Amino acid sequence: MKITSPIVFLSIASLSWAQDLVDSPNLQNAISSTRLLTHTRRLVEFSRLSNGNRVFGSAGHNATVDYIKNALDETGYYDTQLQTFSYLFSASGIASFSASGTPYASVYLTYVPSGDVSAPLVIVNNLGCQTGGYTAAVAGNIAVIKRGTCEFGHKVALAGAAGAVGAIIYNNEDGAVPGGTLGVISRPDVGPYIPVTALFGLDDSALIGELSAGQRIVGSIHVEAVIDERYTNNVIATTKLGDQNNVVVAGAHTDSVVAGPGIDEDGSGSMGLLEIALQLPKWRVTNAVRFAFWSAEEFGLIGSDYDLANLSEEERSKVALYLNFDMIASPQHGIFQHYTKAEVKSMLVPFGSGSDYRTFLDAGIPTGAIFSGSGGIMTDEQAGWWNGLAGVAYDKCYHEACDGVDNLNVDASVLNTKAAAHAVAKYARSLDGIPRPSTELPARSLKIPRQSHDEISHQDCRHEPLLAI
Ligand SMILES: *[C@@H]1O[C@H](CO)[C@@H](O)[C@H](O)[C@H]1NC(C)=O
Ligand SMILES: *[C@@H]1O[C@H](CO)[C@@H](O)[C@H](O)[C@H]1NC(C)=O
Ligand SMILES: [Zn+2]
Ligand SMILES: [Zn+2]
Asked: What is the CA angle 387-390-395, rounded to 5?
């Protein structure tokens, strides 16, 4: 990083201006819809650099990272860092399956390797969740596995371990299989992934019947996967002021999915957080505040995971608290956090594994979040509380191309950015009432497999993300 001398002078000057301790009303008053919208419109411009999205590793995402980093550097108030890591990028590819020349509607599963295989089909006993379900007959052939009980990825790796050259997963319900992913990139402790496709609906029931009756049928699988290693950056900015042994971390993710520019998801949280970080330098803080702008959240919380794994035990123990802001300006916004003074009805939701808060919870760090709803459907009761439309999603453009500036609920953006500013100011002043991070839990002891967020929902109101089971 090149630091030019004017910035150094500016930083000394701005630190000496920061005389008063930050407080919530002042920081909240500094938040304006105009500035939030300005940032957000920039994100849409950035998305035009890369086919209308800001997926990690793309030009649109890189421009987002540069915008944040430059703005924070200009304040002189933070030690900023680009934290570089790599991850396998995967996008929707092509998968097809035919048996005896008849094509079947197939679903592409993320993380499936490319390949072309033709071999006899062999039914796997039970649901293929245990090694015992895969007889010797599977070796060299295509394993035919019923959906249910365990993740697709587990079944495919077990089939690979048994020597199958390919696999199909057939449905137990009409319609597409949910999830659409093998869940994690690889499962070296179970077995290798092999070309696989999931079959749509129950169209294959006749085929399954014939196989069960002992007929020999040759199937063909064709998979074209889109997968490559990409480098990307988290932006981490820590106040130079404040107690560096008690760090309040506030985070949001900067990447979008491939489908669209990601303005509510999560331009709303990341630009709200940026604006708070740009206003905070007017004051002084008691505890250090670290603003974390995560990359590759949409691929399974990769950036926050990398950050926490990279902290030494000592550095991790200094993180007093984590605050997460992912989707805070949904068009039909729900209020899933508690506002004591504002007279609004709120409904608290439990944490799932749908955003970066999970990384910090797994590390035993006290965690809070603001969330205005994603793809979930507003109930009749909620529509009454929040003057919304029952039966319509909180964000009908969730993970879609239409998640642009028009999808941003400006009132919600201001309300929830002020709420975030309140939390940042409060904990920057004092951590009274916050339990010390648990020392009982070894870091990440509760780790559960993270999912590719391209295919599953973020945690919605009372819904866990869908797993491909
Ligand atoms: C984005 O930044 C990463 C990390 O610096 C770099 O490897 C990659 O090539 C950049 N992508 C584009 C499209 O410029
Ligand atoms: C964190 O990453 C930096 C840069 O790659 C490396 O120098 C450092 O050793 C890492 N620390 C830990 C604890 O992994
Ligand atoms: Zn998402
Ligand atoms: Zn998100």
From this structure: 85
Q: Using alpha carbons only, how large is the chain's radius of gyration in Å? A: 24
CB under 8 Å to 392, separation ≥6 — which residues?
332, 377, 378
Report pLDDT for 342. 63
Residue 421's contacts (CB-CB under 8 Å, 6 or more residues apart) are 24, 27, 28, 30, 31, 276, 279
Tell me if 310 CB under 6 Å of ligand 2. yes
Q: Which of 420, 292, 300, 291 is nearest to 353 (CA)?
A: 300
Ligand nearest to the CA of 234: 1
Predicted local confidence at residue 447, as pLDDT: 40
pLDDT of res. 438:
62
Cα→Cα distances 150→32, 62, 130, 146, 449, Å: 48, 37, 9, 10, 13
Could you give the CA distance from residue 83 to residue 304 in angstroms, rounded to a whole number?
A: 10
Pair 353, 464: CB distance under 8 Å: yes
pLDDT at 333 (0 to 100)? 93
210 is catalytic: no
Instruction: Report how far ligand 3's centroid is from the alpha carbon of 282 (Å).
Output: 33
Question: What is residue 311's predicted lDDT score, i.e. its pLDDT?
Answer: 94
User: In this structure, which residues have their CB less than 5 angstroms from ion ligand 3?
Assistant: 298, 453, 458
Which regions of the chain are under pLDDT 50? 1-13, 442-467
Is 29 a pocket residue for ligand 2 (Cβ < 6 Å)? Answer: no
Residue 312 Cβ contacting ligand 2 at under 6 Å: yes
Q: Tell me how far the alpha carbon of residue 265 lies from the centroid of ligand 4, in angstroms.
A: 5
- Residue 6 confidence (pLDDT): 36
Atom from ligand 2 closest to the CA of residue 315 = 13
Token pair 């970080």: residue: 277
Tokens of 255: 């990447």
The pLDDT, as a whole number, for residue 355 is: 94
**Secondary structure (3-state) at 293:** strand
Cα diameter, the chain: 82
Question: Which protein residue has the closest C-alpha to ligand 1 atom 12?
Answer: 59
**Residue 456 Cα, ligand 3 centroid: separation in angstroms?**
8
pLDDT for the residue numbered 17: 53
Measured CA to CA in angstroms, residue 468 lies from 10, 127, 335, 352, 420 at distances of: 52, 14, 29, 16, 33
Q: Please give the DSSP secondary-structure letter assigned to residue 455.
A: T
Catalytic residue among 297, 314, 343, 455: 297
Ligand 1 pocket at CB < 6 A: 57-59, 62, 231-232
Task: Scan for tokens 């679903």, then name that residue.
Answer: 107
Predicted confidence at residue 445, as pLDDT, reads 40
* pLDDT of the residue at 439: 58
pLDDT at 18: 54
